[in-house]
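Thread: quick sanity check before group meeting

JM: Hey all, I'm pulling together slides for Thursday and realized we never actually wrote out the predicted structure for the chain we discussed last week. Dropping the sequence here so it's in one place. If anyone has concerns about the input, flag it before I start.
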Amino acid sequence: MKILTLSDVIVDLVQSPVIAQRFADIDLVLSCGDLPFSYLEYVVTMLNKRLYYVYGNHASHTVFAVDGSIQSEPGGCENLHRRVVNHEGLLIAGLEGSMRYRPGEHQYTQWEMRCLTWSLAPRFWWNKWRYGRAIDILITHAPPAGIHDGQDLCHQGFDAYLDLMDRYRPRYLIHGHTHLYRSDAKRITRYKDTTVLNTYGYQVIEIDDSTLGLPR
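JM (edit): ok, ran it. Output follows.
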């Protein structure tokens, strides 16, 4: 299964009239936040693939549609915040937002994010019993604490993500939020059994379908 991951910045290569040809082999799209609704809608329309997303800290819910109505979410896409889904055998969960640094939506304290990760535990344990593993991919906006994060409060990572990786061992934790301005900036870090990927802009990952296993 080949997956296109997106975050934070519009990429001309993606928002292109030939996107369907460039990404013809993509099976799934995951968005890690802070992208315009119109961009996500363009991608899902042109590729005709399922798109799961979480909101970033700059998400706006006062977007006006063509008919003048207020649009609260991108059309044709699924919000994965605090949800776990089984997409063709791939177990995916999502958590939105960043550290709380000012009044506004989609921001959390360390304790609040820890509570959000705990809310996913029942489904993770169900997956573990049924599929032999809890989670394959976690998509977030912010990074884990100490991995790809920054020193300022807004860009600090969450401790709870480290605990989640320790306990449930996802294959990937895919995040955005931390902008990469240099070609040699670190984008991938291995943490125990998990590959932590900063998908700022876009990335493509591939997972061997044969390793996903069958339900008991």
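AS: nice. The chain has a mean pLDDT of 93. Helices lie at 19-22, 37-47, 110-119, 121-131, 159-168.
JM: adding both to the slides.
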